[in-house]
Amino acid sequence: MTSNGAAEELWVCDLPTIDYRDALALQERVRAARQQDRIPDTLLLLEHPPVYTRGRRSDARELPLGADWYRNQGIDIVDTDRGGKLTYHGPGQLVGYPIMRIDDVIAYLRTMEQAIVAALADAGIAAHARPDDGPDFTGVWTAAERKIASIGVHVARGVTTHGFAINVENDLAPFGWVVACGLDGVQMTSVLEETAGGATPSLPAVRSSMAQHFAAAFGRRVREIDAAALDAATEERAPVRPSGAG
Q: pTM of the full predicted structure?
């Protein structure tokens, strides 16, 4: 499912909060570099300002209050080329964009789900995937069948964009204003909700755990790089390694 050579290493880049459209442009630049084998598989970890994103299978009923109403709440709306239906991103949610060379999309989705389940276990949350329930149920769910993580991807020339979103400490109300994930009546939850009354891990802790479990699930070893090193690597014409990266 994965490439050889440099791809045994997974670059992990922690980024600040990024506008969704800017993140799309960044993913395209990183994917072009990966398609040319100028960089190894790379995982971008970040947050977004409030935004609804619509997948290739989205339809108008998912935004029942009308686009203007949502924008008046300060929530952007963006159509994307990823699979799946409508979801919400906002501050306090961990978003991961793996830019990876793959050859089996279904195996890729299942492996990503396994990594999220393992990271949530570190947070004291029992969770699971629902592969037998059909594509609308791609993602990760808690024992009470509340959805805690969403997944949607796009693949071009064998390399992925888009990825996963784990609700950590974000506001869940915007999910209730739409038909989230195209599922009527779906209940969304978060790490904060599921650990209420106990020790809730911080967003940075979940981010670190997810990076490690994602790399392990795909048989990679983490190499952390910063945004400047990523920019340099994706602009060069020859394979590079960031100086001073750990």
A: 0.90
